[in-house]
Design a protein that fits this description.
mainly alpha; 245 residues; 13 helices; 0% strand
């Protein structure tokens, strides 16, 4: 690793070097700083390489096991879809769990992480982690629904697709969308339970529940108009298009 130059601002100067390298497109200079002694420099180097378009999946995976939580967080924020993140929802540092949950929520139509996100949303000690996981569940549930609808539309356009569609209608067990529906069902239960959590988490849960065509979800959004927290009531009112007191 790079040794500090002894100057009290040495690490700060190297962080600045990393940022400047990113804006100048100097990927080689940024890459050298990935092994710096200072975690802030390493995190800045990741961002610089990303800005240069030169950050590879291998570098991300290496950073995800960095000893510093700040580096793991930055790696999670920058990780492409092919890099597995779900395992980091069990990270001992809450800031990493929060960052990973947020990153998973931005991955389109990916139901695979729902089970672990449900675990975080329902039982993590840190409310910021629960909030991030609840927000991710709402985003994933919305994306999964869109994906399932598009899959059904595409399948109905072909002769074999129409046959499969009719088979699924005749037998609910025969359905290509079953994994997606199972993920949405898990998310729905956790989002409903989150309406008993802290106000900021209830606000996030409302946004997710509004994505569901479900009587219980609709009832929860309606009931939030009478929530004890005014900001929760405001979110419900905005979603339903009604004034709140």
């Amino acid at each position: 690793m790079t040794c500090d130059d002894g100057h009290p601002d040495g690490a700060y100067a190297r962080r600045l070097d990393a940022v400047v390298a990113g804006y100048r497109g100097e990927a080689a200079a940024a890459e050298k700083l990935l092994d710096d002694d200072d975690a802030g420099v390493r995190a800045a180097a990741l961002g610089a390489l990303s800005r240069c378009g030169a950050l590879g999946a291998g570098q991300i995976r290496r950073a995800l096991v960095d000893e510093a939580a700040a580096v793991r967080c930055r790696a999670a924020e920058l990780a492409p879809a092919e890099v597995e993140l779900v395992g980091l929802l069990g990270d001992p540092d809450s800031s990493v769990v929060e960052a990973v949950a947020a990153a998973l929520g931005e991955r389109d139509r990916d139901p695979d992480s729902v089970g672990e996100l449900c675990r975080v949303a329902a039982g993590h000690d840190d409310p910021l982690c629960r909030e991030s996981a609840v927000a991710a569940l709402g985003a994933i549930a919305a994306g999964v629904a869109d994906g399932a609808d598009q899959s059904c539309d595409a399948a109905a356009d072909s002769e074999t697709g129409r046959e499969a569609h009719h088979a699924a209608a005749a037998d609910p067990k025969v359905s290509a969308g079953a994994p997606h529906e199972a993920a949405r069902g898990m998310a729905l239960e956790v989002l409903l339970a989150a309406m008993d959590d802290r106000p900021q988490i209830r606000r996030r849960a409302l946004l997710g529940l509004f994505q569901f065509d479900d009587d219980r979800a609709a009832a929860a959004v309606q009931a939030a108009l009478e929530d004890r927290d005014r900001q929760v009531r405001a979110v419900a009112g905005e979603l339903l298009g009604v004034p709140v007191r």
